[in-house]
Amino acid sequence: MKIDRHKEQYRLNERINVPEVRIVGDNVTQGVYPTHKALQMAEDMGRDLVEISPNAKPPVCRIIDYQKFLYQQKRRLKEQKANAVRIVVKEIRFGPQTDDHDYNFKLRHAKGFLEEGAKVKAYVFFKGRSILFKEQGEVLLLRFANDLEEQGKVEQMPVLEGKRMTIMIAPLARKNAAPKPPADNAEGKNEDE
Length: 193
Fold this sequence. Notes:
- This protein is α/β, with parallel strands linked by helices.
- The strands form two sheets. The chain has a four-stranded mixed sheet. A four-stranded mixed sheet has the order 5-6-8-7, with helices on one face.
- The longest helix is centred in the middle third of the chain and has 18 residues.
- It is rod-shaped.
């Protein structure tokens, strides 16, 4: 059986055990009432007295249909989850002595990842005695960050953690990308003719 945390989050009706409450909401006269009178008002309207803010002095309550209220709360939470930004981190691995061809291949992938909005975590992995080349690894990562300067910004400079030297690059914030102006070459050709 699934336990619903929302039902236990709010006290309602007889479970509200304070001398007086503040009533807010639609279709009610707002103000501070003794709890028994607030309960009577809710009963007369055919609704529930729900404690919204228990830490206020006096606690704040609403006279509402509790099931409808729970449904709206769940829907609001679901919408917040759907609108939450998920950060994707793509990893790119180098050796301390990576060739230019491999470097350029990985650089192209990193540019694509950053344009998609993912963060890039690039690292140099040192096997065995290759830890002696940690300066080479740092130079490689700084070159990588420099080549990606137009697509992203360095979030974390190269850090050596065990046998890995890591750098983190985040995509640049996009501001409603305007269409690019036409290339100057096309205009130049028309002027020469």
